[in-house]
Write a structure and sequence with these properties.
Largest sheet: 6 strands, antiparallel
Shape: globular
CATH superfamily: Hotdog Thioesterase
CATH architecture: Roll
Strand order of the largest sheet: 1-2-4-5-6-3
Length: about 120
């Protein structure tokens, strides 16, 4: 985990070529002192890092983001109001070293972030 104690994985549910990961944010993490003290928001780059870490955990390999094809931050994630998130990740294998992932970060009826990213297997 790049940022220690930022989140915990509560559950992984596998489906087809992907999975859903239920995570719990730590709303007291020191990151929020700088982003932002009065209104904490999960930084977009950390959302993408969590995706990478979840994929590495599930695939049991080291990955590198190759291409962030598209990212849409639709609603800010505030850890005090939305400490639980579902990362839905669907994967398509391009070749033996490359996968493309379609990601939705949400909870219940809220969709916070949508992304399409390709990753290279660097193990």
């Amino acid at each position: 985990m790049l940022i220690k104690d930022f989140y915990t994985i509560n559950d992984l549910i596998f489906r087809g070529s992907g999975f859903d990961a239920a995570i719990q944010l730590n709303p007291n993490h020191e990151v929020y002192q700088g982003h932002f003290p009065e209104q904490p928001v999960v930084p977009g780059v950390i959302q993408l890092q969590i995706v990478k870490e979840l994929l590495e955990e599930v695939m049991q390999t080291k990955l590198m983001m190759d291409n962030v094809i598209q990212v849409k931050y639709l609603i800010p994630i505030t850890p005090n109001e939305n400490p639980e998130l579902i990362f839905s990740i669907m994967n398509k294998t391009v070749d033996e070293n490359t996968i493309k992932s379609t990601i939705t970060i949400g909870f219940n009826d809220l969709v916070f972030t949508k992304a399409r990213i390709s990753f290279l297997n660097i193990s």
